[in-house]
């Protein structure tokens, strides 16, 4: 069963429209890449809604006033290679001071389990509020493995940002990491026999980089 208190479908009309373009098999890499970046930016707006703010005294050209600015832990963006890279630019458009780490995992074609091959994170990652990015939450193995790696390095606050999710992946991630909130643009039907999301949009990495 999905815990909908920790699972959020960001269903803004602009996101629905752009996602429909990405799903079409005729959509080329240029448009796919642009839509992914734009959706990531729109979703990041919602994901960061609960960031703490504090009061600061400023002076406008007209008068002094009390304004609000983001307080607390700094942000880090951690894409899961390679498809997660397509989401970074959109998020950085909103939070340009965020640090960016990278986690490299690939799915074993036989077992569908994640295999780690790369990890490079900011030195102070344990002090940061981390957004893990991966367009597809299919089996949940890669996302769960990446979050394991972050927790092993002391990270306490993690949210997962993905584009399309399968129920199987959501349930797996919530079993492994019940504390992690998931933000997605769509909850699709299921996984097929090759562990691809149905209807999905195919292999996000191949479509993003033109390697299909």
Report on this structure.
The protein has helices spanning 13-23, 29-47, 85-94, 141-152, 167-176, 204-209, and strands at residues 7-9, 53-59, 64-70, 75-81, 99-100, 102-107, 114-120, 129-133, 136-137, 157-161, 164-165, 181-184, 186-187, 190-191, 197-198. By secondary structure, the chain is an alpha/beta fold. Helix content is 32%, strand content 30%. The protein contains 6 helices and 15 strands.
Structure described in brief:
The protein has 212 residues and is α/β, with parallel strands linked by helices.
Looking at this protein, list some descriptive labels.
single chain; 212 residues; alpha/beta; 8-stranded mixed beta sheet; 3-stranded parallel beta sheet; 6 helices; 32% helix; 30% strand
